[in-house]
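Let's practice the habit of predicting before peeking. Look at the sequence and jot down your guess about where helices and strands might fall. Then scroll down.
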Amino acid sequence: MSNPQKRKVLFLCTGNSCRSQMAEAIVNTRLGETWQAFSAGTQPTGYVHPLALRALAEIGIEHHGTSKSADQFRGQSFDVVITVCDDAAENCPVWLGQGQRAHLGFPDPAKAVGTEDEVMAIFRKVRDDISQQVIEYLKAF
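Done guessing? Here is the structure:
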């Protein structure tokens, strides 16, 4: 039975291929009883990064998200809008719509360099950090 009182969260970043996608999938899987998560980017890449999907699959989450533009969510109401970009390295998008705004910054794993194992380790770390910090934040919201 669905809960009509679910709160809504939008995760924003630039490309909507890694961090915001992982946050969306993690919240919908782990907090799906109370939260409904969406993700978008200001300059969507048009795809979800395969290593982000692999990192999610490793923790039992099968994600079928698509890279979306933040524009398609304008005018919608969210309880909270969370930017997930690493503000030291890039510009975070600004949300002008409804919803409390918060920032939880994570490095962009798509920019990781090295061997496949080294890059995958970065994706795992970002996934685990998102899982811990976002879940804690939303539980306390």
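How did you do? The mean pLDDT is 91.
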